[in-house]
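Structure first, sequence second, as always.
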């Protein structure tokens, strides 16, 4: 609105705006193939038509000689001077990258991370992107004390009967690592940040897949981040990271582990039947998807885990039934008993729900769409059903009681009484015992007969 010069709001343009017309531009943004080609030209510039920038070339060559002579501290100072002097020239990109390289060579990894991040912010499609992401990945692994990626086959199943009672064991690589307090300052080791080394490492991994999502280390950085969250017990963060890996990198070699471990971290955030059960449904759907996508995976184990999830859902429904019984709402409890029986008919809680429906009686179950009450006493004392008699047909033996003599006239069928035609409870109307029938109208015309 303010950028249109013909608009009446052009005079009200904010004073901090630099250009006359504010239009977004994608100048300087390069695609992956163009970036690869420029990187190849940079590596083979002696035998190619690559043209070095004229401004600052001599100073850059002098600083690079110091870097090749392993005088990293002097080279870093000279490269910083080039960055400061040539702010708007192409030589700044290479000098900024060399500043980070000098700091990395001196094992000043915290300063190197800041310099690499500044390069990625100023030059998103820099030709040094591949080398920058490799450096950030190695820095993050060093700060995390070289962690290993957790695989789905090594993790144990969550205890759904008593959530949170015990944590499953996570496989270890045998390395001894020292834990450091985030608020305890680091005053002696220059290779680590002053504060919070762990989160600085996670920021380095995030910078990789954020600035180079199509690069070779993007899925590796996500998997390493999720594995670290899993080890330290940050299950919700691990769940979000595994979800991002599954959705954005379907061709990653870590896809199977992302599915297997994704269900694990979802179930680890489940707190019991008194809380939300969304994680149970999501974990069950994820396990079913894993069975379909990876038939060679541990099918028996996944099916057993699916049964445990269904048992946990049934337990949650039974807790809801008990809640309404404590509130003295037997009709509401009867509704949830029906839902439990329909959704989980083979669970142990379904039998308890059937017995409870029988105890509630008809006054509390008459509003149900179906009555699944099966008390034990009534089931054991049920009389044997009577045999039905079928009329005899010529040439066939008689059916019914033994020793019945054939008769030429078929026996009369028993007339159905009124009690046998009573509709079920769900088809009855209030205060009416008769079944619903169609009532003919007096004005209804009779169908005309055709005359032949």
């Amino acid at each position: 609105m303010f950028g249109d010069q013909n608009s009446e709001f052009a005079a009200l343009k904010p004073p901090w705006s630099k250009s006359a017309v504010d239009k977004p531009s994608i100048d300087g943004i390069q695609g992956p193939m163009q970036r690869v080609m420029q990187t190849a030209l940079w590596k083979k510039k002696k035998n190619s038509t690559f043209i070095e920038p004229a401004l600052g070339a001599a100073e850059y060559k002098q600083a690079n000689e110091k870097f090749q002579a392993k005088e990293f501290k002097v080279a870093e100072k000279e490269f910083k001077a080039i960055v400061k002097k040539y702010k708007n020239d192409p030589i700044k990109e290479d000098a900024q990258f060399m500043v980070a390289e000098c700091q990395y060579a001196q094992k000043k990894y915290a300063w190197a991370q800041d310099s690499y991040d500044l390069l990625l912010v100023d030059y998103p499609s820099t030709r040094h992107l591949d080398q920058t992401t490799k450096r950030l990945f190695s820095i993050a692994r060093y700060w995390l004390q070289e962690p290993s990626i957790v695989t789905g086959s090594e993790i144990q199943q969550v205890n759904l009967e008593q959530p949170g009672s015990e944590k499953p064991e996570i496989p270890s690589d045998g390395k001894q690592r020292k834990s450091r307090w985030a608020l305890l300052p680091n005053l002696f080791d220059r290779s680590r940040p002053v504060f919070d080394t762990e989160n600085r490492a996670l920021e380095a991994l995030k910078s990789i897949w954020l600035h180079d999502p199509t690069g070779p280390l993007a899925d590796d950085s996500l998997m390493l981040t999720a594995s670290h969250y899993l080890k330290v017990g940050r299950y919700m963060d691990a769940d979000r990271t595994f979800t991002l890996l599954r959705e954005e990198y379907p061709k990653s070699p870590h896809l199977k582990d992302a599915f297997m471990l994704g269900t694990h971290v979802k179930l680890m955030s489940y707190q019991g039947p008194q809380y939300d059960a969304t994680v149970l449904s999501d974990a069950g759907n994820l396990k079913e998807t894993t069975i379909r996508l990876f038939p060679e995976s541990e099918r028996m184990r996944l099916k057993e885990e699916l049964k445990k999830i269904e048992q946990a859902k049934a337990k949650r429904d039974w807790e809801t039934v008990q809640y309404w019984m404590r509130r003295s709402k037997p009709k509401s409890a009867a509704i949830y008993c029906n839902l439990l029986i329909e959704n989980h008919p083979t669970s142990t809680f379904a039998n308890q729900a059937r017995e409870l429906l029988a105890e509630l009686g008809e006054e509390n179950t008459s509003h149900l769409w179906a009555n699944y009450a099966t008390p034990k006493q009534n089931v054991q004392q049920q009389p044997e059903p009577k045999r039905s008699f079928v009329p005899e047909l010529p040439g066939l033996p008689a059916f019914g009681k033994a020793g019945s003599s054939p008769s030429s006239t078929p026996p009369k069928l028993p007339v159905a009484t009124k009690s046998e035609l009573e509709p079920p409870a769900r088809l009855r109307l209030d205060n009416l015992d008769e079944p619903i029938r169609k009532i003919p109208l007096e004005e209804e015309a009779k169908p005309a007969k055709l005359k032949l």
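Margin note: The longest helix spans residues 299-326.
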